[in-house]
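User: My instructor asked us to take a sequence, write out its structure as tokens, and then describe one feature of it. I'm not sure where to start. Here is the sequence I was given:
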Amino acid sequence: MRTIVKGSYLLLLGLLISCGGKEEKKQDGFQVQRQKSTEKAVQVETETTKASERIDLESKGVGPITSLTLDPEIDPAMAEEGKAVYDQLCLACHRVGKKFIGPAPNGILERRTPEWVMNMILNPEGMVKEDPLAKDLFMEFNGSPMANQGLTEEQARAVLEYFRTL
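Assistant: Let's start with the prediction itself. The structure tokens for your sequence are:
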């Protein structure tokens, strides 16, 4: 009997020693402990210049205009006609001097070729599908597609002449 009591006592003492010292503290809220990875993260360099500010004077875009020569002098009558077309069809999305639904038109010929501008006016759907810069602009302006206003080449050229005056 003494052996059973002594054995039980030793067993109880062993259990107390093995479980002792661990104290769980209850904490309020949800908590996650993360271990730091030993792998080095690879950083991908992203394009820091916005598409609307990027300069590309090489691309002619996708569309019917493959070559266009601008006269050194601005044609005031054509520019006035272009302003009328712009005010009627483009002003809803494009504002001179500020970003709106679409990019501001002022200074566009310092950043794009005349052919690219004309093709964007005449063929916005094809440009967004195939031209990398037009795709980037589409993304920069929250996926707002430029509407095809159905302008003729003459009307688009007049709008381009108006852009030269800005």
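For the description part of your assignment, you could build on this observation: The longest helix spans residues 2-19. Try explaining in your own words what that tells you about the chain.
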